[in-house]
Amino acid sequence: MTIRLRGRTAAAALATMALLATPAATAHAAPGPAPAPATSAAAATLELPRPTGPYAVGSDILHLTDHDRTDPWVPESGDRELMVSLYYPARPGRPGATAPYMSTGEARLLLAGIGLEGTVQPATLSSLGTHARTGARTAPGHFPLVLLSPGFGNPRATVTSLAEDLASRGYMVASVDHAYESLGTELPDGRLLTCVACEKMTSAPSEEARQELGRLVSTGRAADLSFVLDRLTGHRPAWEGSRMIDRRRVAVAGHSIGGSAAASAMLADPRFDAGINMDGTFQERVPASGLAGRPFMMLGTASHSPGGEDESWDQGWQRLDGWKRWIGVEGSGHSSFTDVPVLEDRLGVTLDPTVTLSTDRQVRITRDYVSTFLDQHLRGRHQPLLDGPTPDNPEVVFQRP
Predict the structure, then answer these.
(1) How far apart are CA 229 and CA 275, in angstroms?
(2) Where are the domains positioned within the chain?
(3) Distance between CA 161 and CA 360 in Å, rounded?
(4) What is the distance in angstroms between the CA of the first residue and the CA of the last residue of the chain?
(5) Please, what is the average pLDDT of the chain?
(6) Structure letter (DSSP) for residue 206
(7) Would you call 15 exposed, middle or buried from its count of C-beta atoms within 10 A (0-12, 13-18, 19+)?
(8) What's the pLDDT at 95?
(9) Residues 327-339: tens digit of each pLDDT
C-alpha cells in the first residue's frame, strides 16, 4: 500500500522536506512567491527564544565515528561519521561564550538549499544568538537523556530551541546530524557534507524505490541513535560529562523523518524508554507486537488526522501498545515543531505562508507538550496537560482519546 502525506506521496515528500516544506507543496510544484528580504526590525532581535527552565544551559560538540559501519550514502568516505550537539543542565556562573547556532559554511549550504541565497547572509544565520554556554560546568545530579533527530535535509541546528529548553528543565539532550542527510554538515577538519541522500531520493526511478530509500533513512538513523547512546553511556564514554546521565531514563524524539527514526530506534533498541514523532510519516511500520508497552506520542499538524492521507499514522496508532497520544495543532505547519518559525521571524522571511499561529505559540506548544510527555514518562510525574484539551491551548486537538 502506498502511504500518502498531505497530498503528496510520502517518499516524494521526503525529497523536498527541507526547511521550506509546506503542507500543500508537491514534488513538482512551481516556485512560490519570492521571500521578503530581511528587515532591520527583524535583525534587531536575532536570537532564539529564551529557555524556560530553572537551569543554566551548557553545550558541547562531539565528532563520533562508528567503525563498525560504512557510510551507506557515500561508501568511499569510509566509516560512518556523526556530529552531535550536547545540551545539559549547567551551574550558574559568569556569562561565557555562547554556542554558535551553526557554522558559516553550514549556513551557506542551508540558505542555498532553501532558496534564500542572496536574501539572507550566511553570517547572519550562523550568528543567531543561542542561550547555551560552551565550557559551562555541569549541574550536580543525574538527568534523563533525550536524543533528537532532525527532519530530512535539515541540520541538527534546527532543533536547538527545543534542545536548550529541555536542558534548562533538567534534561541531557543530544541532537544528531546524520551524515549526508543534511543540506550542510561541517566536520572538525573543515569538510562540508551535503545531502547525498536527498539526491538519491530525487533520482529514484520509482515510487517503490523512494519508499525503500525512506525506510533505509529511518532504520539507518535508528542505528545512528543507538550508536550515539552507546558512546554517551558505555564503559568508556565519549563525553567527559557523561556521568551526569541517568542511563535508566532515555527517550528519543524527532521531526519529520526524524520522528519516524524515533519509532525505528525504539523498535531496534529496548534502551529507549519513550518516543515522540513530530509530524513525520512512519517509514518503517510499527509491527503487530507494538513497542513492548513503551509510551509514544504523535504530535503533528491538524492535517495529520485520523483517516487522513498519511495512512501510516492510523496504522501506527493501532499498533502502539503502551501509553499513547495523537495530538494535532491547528494553524501549524510541517516545520512548526522546529526552529523554522523563529528563523522566519528573526530573519524577516516567509517559508510557509499557510501557518496562522504566531511564532510564540508554535514554540510554546512544542516545548510544553514535549517536556510534559518526558516529565510524565521519564520522571513519573503525572501531567494533566496530556489528559485532554485545555482552555489555555485551544489550538491543540487530541485526535484520539
Answers:
(1) 14
(2) 45-400
(3) 12
(4) 27
(5) 89
(6) S
(7) buried
(8) 66
(9) 999 999 999 999 9
